[in-house]
Amino acid sequence: MAGMIKKEDVEKVRAAADLYDIVSASVSLKPSGTGNYVGLCPFHDEKTGSFNVRPALGVWHCFGCGLGGDVFKFVEQQENIDFREAVQLLADKYHIELHYENSGTGRPEHSGSKRARLIEANEEAQRFFVSQIMTKEALAARKLLGGRTFSQADCERFGCGYAPQGWDNLVRHLASKGFTQQEMLDAGLARQGQRGIYDYFRGRVTWPIRDSTGRTLGFGARKLYEDDQIAAKYINTPDTALYRKTQVLYGIDLAKKAIVKKRQVVIVEGYTDVMAMHLAGVDTAIATCGTAFGAEHAKIVRRLIADDSLGAVQLVGPLKVEGQPLSSRIVFTFDGDAAGQKAALHAFGLDSAFLTQTFVAVADDNLDPCDLRIERGDEAVRSLVANAKPLYDFVIDSAIGRFDTTYTTGQMGAVKAVAPLVAQIRDRSLLDMYTRKTTRRIGVDLDVMRREVNMARRQLHVRDDDAYAQRRRFGDQPGTFGRGESRLEPGENPYANPARRRELEHRDATEQTYFRIDDAVFIAEQQFMAMLIQVPRAIDANWFGALTLANFMTPVFRTLYQAIAAAGGLPSNDTPQGLWMHNLTKAGGPMLEPVINELAVMPLPLPPSGRAGAGSGPDASGNVNTSGDADSADAQLRPPTKAETQYANELLAKLLDMGLMRRIGAARRRMTMLPDGEEKIALLGEITKLETSRKDLQAQVYGTIG
């Protein structure tokens, strides 16, 4: 087995990897302060954003679940792989050749089926399937796609392919490309038979199922021939290390940008429906793959569609989206038949905040989007989405519509049928509104409906939930920093007012999770450590050298000071930014790693530097920075601004001043215990020198402040 990846190669990958680019592939990030971005955590379910990313430092941290780290740690958590595999995966993405200790150069021989190899196998399989679509044997596949009015260009756009009928066509092709049989099995591309392995997909039209970054994770395939040994009309890649049917969405790679921009998503039931929707101009369409839309799918959608324009990242009701004709919404295109209604009922199990903007679109004659486009054209498909009905109304109306409510017995039947549905609405305010609405729809007394709904609610053990509750997140500013915040002019310091600065400093102290205290000493130490981690070049090396452990009183910062010493002290100016964070977290160990990550993304009371997020991510107005300095300036510790240097000096002066004060106090207590004599006179001289040093320090820093 190959040795460890060489350290210099790890640092090459770290410098090349764009944390914003990698995280934003699965999380919708919004600017939040200088160089910081906030979104919904991909590692735990939340309705308000507590996931912070600081691209310039290459650090992320979630204040909700406590996870955090560098770009490698993010990939490890997201892909469920170890550090070595994370480095290999990113090296593949950024085309960096890795070298290994004691193994020469180039890639090591692969032992087992690692994730990167499985992705490579799927990508090669996709190329093979696409190459087969124009063969003579694939005529049936072309007829099927052409019969749905899909052109050759359309099929190329969506990656349609053909899996030949033979026994092991793909297996032999992959073997010729260097893939092992175990890798083919682990990727779900082959199955084990009595005479060896054989192709899983045979004689079928194929569609690649990709993640939001465009990597092929698996395939969906439709039956073409009656003699197919697999009876199912559609089959998908079985669950693998890459592919989980509850966590993949067909078309997410094509629809992601539009979903984020429009805060809308249309969920259809098939691959051809996704194609029809996109070709008709509904570019937010996606589909589940062989399973019903569930909670894991909802998490993926929520992270992309989340918005913080009202001061909280949450999904509550269909909100107006600037520049879009439709409000924010999740639209399901269920069939109008019994199966479609069952699917709609299944969606009731999603959380109430998600359901408040969930709609259902059902075409006349129960046509699916693909057939609707064939029969009535693109405009009919667009109208289908525009005229969607709220999910609650669809399910309730479907139940009531089965009864003739002109008769008393029909009314009671409708009440009995719909009460368990209304009872499942967890939000109390919506529950009351829909109880009243349903009462009017059926034509019975409100008391009758409430009695049935309450009884059903008790039987179903439905928990209350307030989907509309305003939730506060880390980073929300009180007063003018939340709702109604005025825009700042470029270069303007929002913390020029000392009161605003103290407000943020105190909020930083009270909202951190690693030490609960709020006093002047703690704040000075916390702000200094955050400054040192985020902009180490702002720290004066001579003054830093005068610090000792005695200058810190807070236990966590005393320990962190020792970790900084263990990491080699202040980094040199040419130290790569990522390497500084890596060395620091490595020295701090698992106990201090979350503290370091939290301090790295903590907002500081400073004006925007204009360089805090250079080369990565959009600015507050949504414009993407494309300065192209990722290989040079961004990789190194950036120089501080004048404001950052001044603030760092103020913090250093406070710590040194407190250290001198403690030494003076200790010396004076000692002096009171000494008899008159030379020792007491010498101690008095030492106190005088300390007091002079203290005055000089204060004058040097604060004497220049107006």
From TrEMBL:
State which Enzyme Commission number(s) the record gives.
Answer: 2.7.7.101
User: What are the protein's UniProt keywords?
Assistant: DNA replication, DNA-binding, DNA-directed RNA polymerase, Magnesium, Metal-binding, Nucleotidyltransferase, Primosome, Transcription, Transferase, Zinc, Zinc-finger
Query: What is the UniProt remark on how the cofactor binds and its stoichiometry?
Result: Binds 1 zinc ion per monomer.
Q: Where is this region: Disordered?
A: 473-507, 607-642
Zinc fingers classed as CHC2-type: ranges? 41-65
Q: Which GO terms describe its molecular function?
A: DNA binding; DNA-directed RNA polymerase activity; zinc ion binding
Biological process annotations from GO: DNA replication, synthesis of primer
Record-linked InterPro entries:
DNA_primase_core_N_sf (IPR037068), DNA_primase_DnaB-bd (IPR019475), DNA_primase_DnaG (IPR006295), DNA_primase_Znf_CHC2 (IPR036977), DnaG_bac (IPR030846), DNAG_N (IPR013264), DnaG_primase (IPR050219), TOPRIM_DnaG_bac (IPR034151)
Instruction: Give a Gene Ontology cellular component term annotated to this protein.
Output: primosome complex
- What positions does the domain Toprim occupy? 263-366
Description of how the protein assembles with itself and partners = Monomer. Interacts with DnaB.
Tell me the NCBIfam families matching this sequence: dnaG (TIGR01391)
Query: What does the function comment of this entry state?
Result: RNA polymerase that catalyzes the synthesis of short RNA molecules used as primers for DNA polymerase during DNA replication.
Q: Which family does it belong to?
A: Belongs to the DnaG primase family.
PANTHER family to which the protein is assigned, alphabetical: DNA PRIMASE (PTHR30313)
Specify the protein name.
Answer: DNA primase
Which organism is the protein's source? Answer: Bifidobacterium callitrichos DSM 23973
